[in-house]
Amino acid sequence: MGTSPSKTLDTFPNPKPERDYLIRFETPEFTCLCPKTAQPDFATVRVEYVPDRLCVELRSWKLYLWSYRNEGAFHEAIINRILDDLVAAVHPRRARVEGDFNIRGGIHTTVAAEYQSA
């Protein structure tokens, strides 16, 4: 695996698939671009999920988030896309992704998206 931004999420087998347990991680340096002004937006991205058969490999997660650095998108679209990509990669039992975006124009935005397997 290189050290360039990538939309590929690597996985590894869940070491305890018979048990429900929660994985949490937080990235306080997430950056993307405002789709209207092209100025940078900064956020803390928090993820929690209950794995099924697979877990996401965290180095690939770092490179995945890095791939948003030069993308312009609304906060709502980014957080939902991150959740969709996580679900597609690891098929968790449940997952939640939250983006806590820094204040811009006097407005603080938090967007959360959730997934529950059927």
Describe the model.
With 118 residues, the protein is of the alpha+beta class. It has a domain at 1-11 and 55-68 and 75-96. 21% of the residues lie in helices and 42% in strands. The chain has a four-stranded antiparallel β-sheet with strand order 2-3-5-6, covered by helices on one side. A two-stranded antiparallel ribbon has the order 1-4. 20% of the residues are buried.
How would you classify the helix and strand content by structural class? Answer: alpha+beta
Query: SSE order, as H and E?
Result: EEEEHHEE
- The value of Rg in angstroms is 14 Å
Largest sheet: spatial strand order: 2-3-5-6
Helicity, in percent?
Answer: 10-25%
What do the pLDDT scores average to?
95
**Biggest pleated-sheet summary:** 4 strands, antiparallel
Number of helices: 2
Enumerate the spans where pLDDT stays under 50 for 5 or more consecutive residues: none
Topology:
Elements: E1 11-13, E2 23-33, E3 40-50, E4 54-56, H1 58-66, H2 75-90, E5 94-104, E6 107-116
Antiparallel strand pairs: 1-4, 2-3, 3-5, 5-6
Summarize, please.
The protein is an alpha+beta fold. It is 21% helix and 42% strand. The longest helix has 16 residues.
Key phrases:
118 residues; alpha+beta; 4-stranded antiparallel sheet; two-stranded antiparallel sheet; 2 helices; 21% helix
